[in-house]
Amino acid sequence: MIPAADQIRMYRQMLLIRRIEERIAECYGEGRIGGFTHLYIGQEAVAVGAIASLHRDDYVIDTYRDHGHFLARGGAPKALMAELFGRSTGVCQGKGGSMHLADAQHYFYGGTGIVGGSIPIAAGLGLASAYREDDRITMAFFGDGATNQGVWHEGLNFAKVWNLPVIFVCENNFYGIGTDVRLSSAFVEVHKKAAGYGIPGYQINGMDVMEVRQRCEEVVRLVRGGSGPALIEAVCYRYQGHSMTDPGRYRARAEEELWRKRDPIPRLAKSMLAEDVVDDARLQELEREIEVEVEDAVRFADESPEPGPEALYADMFHDRYPSDPHA
Ligand SMILES: Cc1ncc(C[n+]2csc(CCOP(=O)(O)OP(=O)(O)O)c2C)c(N)n1
Ligand SMILES: [Mg+2]
Fold it and tell me: Strand 138-143 vs strand 166-172: parallel, antiparallel, or unpaired?
């Protein structure tokens, strides 16, 4: 059973991700955010439930759809918004943008624009933990499309050969941009795709944060105990287009409506109300708190300065990086 305070915390995180991304979409439409931006709306339960099963200092690595994981890992909404606005107060001083949020203080090794890019880096992080015997595990997020990439095969093979403490979490939302997974994958049961490397795979309901958390906790226990790598397929759905420029005309309306009924946020609200974890007044209070937090983040971003020309050459070379906080 997940304690009441944890349920409320997970609800709050999912709601924050949803509301901040709705605001991001508005700001993008107003031309205040540039570049590629991919929303996570609909998939919030995966990042929130999976990351809640980790220790504070386990490693997390991600894709370009990274706002939710960044926030679930403890990243600040202000630092996120300022990064999207290209401001010097952003988590990467405004030089990374939406797809490249990286926050070493929270052991969040970042988003990457390369499909499947998180997979080999996760194997590398796992190898570092094995060498250092630091008891950390690595959790890598990626989409269904990544499981057809060469790095998927190389990364999983390497992780198993070295029996590394890595959990590969595939967020199967059935589409890679506008292509249905059935048109791009010879085999669509993602959780079975690691069997060829002797890696166990588990399929979970990615629209139910309680299930995600519980099942991930079980897998985390095994992997931290030395079982070697594991694969989790979280079945989920994104409610928006692939990116801000995608009108999403390739999906049937009936399919979208079906998945909207499975929205993870009202689902958790309903179960918390049924179990007296919260009442309606508390839920409304949370909405208001988050509204304030989101508006504060937008204002902070808006009022922050852009990086100066000197920032062009800062953080470019290894000897100018701050020393590794985790070595
Ligand atoms: C190596 C590589 N190939 C192609 C692309 C272009 N691309 C960006 S996102 C994407 C679809 C990926 O789909 P999926 O892995 O299912 O993740 P989702 O967007 O559904 O979260 C593609 C093909 C890329 N960024 N990197
Ligand atoms: Mg996908």
Answer: parallel
